[in-house]
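#data-curation
PF: Archiving a pair of folding outputs for the training set. Convention for this channel: one message per protein, sequence first, C-alpha cells after, nothing in between. First:
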Amino acid sequence: MCKEQKNGNGINQSKSKAITDDKEVKETQESDADDREVKETQESDNDDAKEHFDNNKGNGVLKEILSWVKVFVVAFIVAFILSNYVIVNARIPSASMKNTINEGDKVIGFRLSYMFSNPKRGDIVMFYAPDKENTIYIKRVIGVPGDRIVIQDNKLYINDELITENYIENPWTKDKGTSEDDVIPKDEYYMMGDNRDNSNDSRVWGTVKKSKIIAKAIFRYYPSFKKFN
C-alpha cells in the first residue's frame, strides 16, 4: 500500500513536472512570439517612418518645384503686362534721331503718357510708321494740331516764327520734302527726326494721327543713361 502510494506520488510528481515543463515551453513560445511581434512591430514602424520620410521628402521637392513654377508664371504675366500695356523697350535701328538718340541705343517708352493728355511740341514719341507696315518709328513732335508748318532754306517756321532747335547739333544741308503752309489737322502731329539730313519723316509722308502714337520716349538706358525732356 505504501509502495503504491509512493508510486502514485511519483507519477503525480512526474505529471506535475511535465505540466510545469509544458507551461514553461508555452510561456517561452509566447515570449518568443511576443518578441517576434515586437520586432515585426518595430520593423513596421520603421517602414512607416521611412515611407513617411520619403513622402515628406517627395512633397518637399514637389512644393519647391511648384513654388518656382509660380514665380516664373507671375514673372511672365508681369512682363507681358508691362511690355504690352505699360512700356516699350526699343532698340534704335537707324540714325534719324542722331545725336539725341544714336543707332543701337536702347530706349524705354511709356505707353500711358498720353492716356489723359496730348503730345506736346518737343516730345520724342514712338508711333506706327505711316509708310511701313508693322514698323515703329521714333521721332520728335514738331507741330501739334492747329500749327502751321513752313520749311524754307533748311529752316523751320511754326506759325510764322523761326524756331531755334537746340537739340540739333548739325545744321541742315538738304531740303527734304519742303512743305509750305501745312496746317496740322485735329488729333494729328508733325514729326521730324533730329538728324534732318538723314530722316524719313513728316516732310515725306505727312502727319501722324494720335491713335497711331504708341508711347512717349522717357529715357535711354544703353549704352548710358539719358533722360529725355
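PF: Second:
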Amino acid sequence: MSMNGKIIDLILHKDNQTIALNKPSGILVQSGEKAGEDKTLMQLAEIYCKHPLGLVHRLDRPASGVCIFAKNKKALTFLNQQMQDRKVEKKYWAVVPKGEIKEEDTLIHYLKRNGKSKKAEVEKTEKPLYKKAELNYKKIGEIDNYILLEVELITGRFHQIRAQLSAIGFPIKGDVKYGSRRGNKDRSIHLHARSISFLHPASREKILIEAPTPNDSIWAAFQQ
C-alpha cells in the first residue's frame, strides 16, 4: 500500500480549512524524539495535503484517536482561540481495571510536569508550580475485568487523564508509567480520543468528528 493509501485509511474529515485523522497508537503527532524516527502523523498528513499544516492539539504517543490539523494560518488561529476559550469539546474513552468507582464524577488535582521522568506529578491540594487539572468522567461500559470511562477534559494538562485516573486508583490499561500492572504487547495504552467538536473556521457551523476505536479484543468487547 502506498503512503497516501495508508493516510487515506486514517482520514476522518477533510475540507479546505482542516483535516482530521484517526491516530494509531505508537505514532508521534509531531517532532520525533530521536533523529531517524519514522515519520510523525503531522508529516504524513503534510505529504498527503502537499503543503504545511498547523498543529491544533496533541495526543500522547501510546494513545489513539482523533487529531486535527489546520490547513492555513487563519484556520489555526481560529481553532487555537477556541481551544484557549475552552469551546472545543473533546471526549476520550479510557479502559481501567474493574473496581469500586463512582458512576460519574469530577476530578480536580494539581499537576506538575517532571522533565526527568517525563511524568506528571500529582497533588490533591494546590502547591507552587502545580497547575489545576480538572476533568469529568462517567462510566459507560463494563466487561469481566475492565470498566470503560468516557472522559471530558475541562483543562488540558500534560498526561492529565493518565495521571488523574491513576491518582484515584484506576490506571489506564497498559499504562505502566502510571501504575498499570502490565503493559500491552504493542506498547499502546487503552486511551482513545473518541470525539471532538468545534466551530468550523469558515462556516462557523459546529463540526463533530468521531474516531472508531482500534481493532483489538478489549475495545471489541465493549462495542458488543
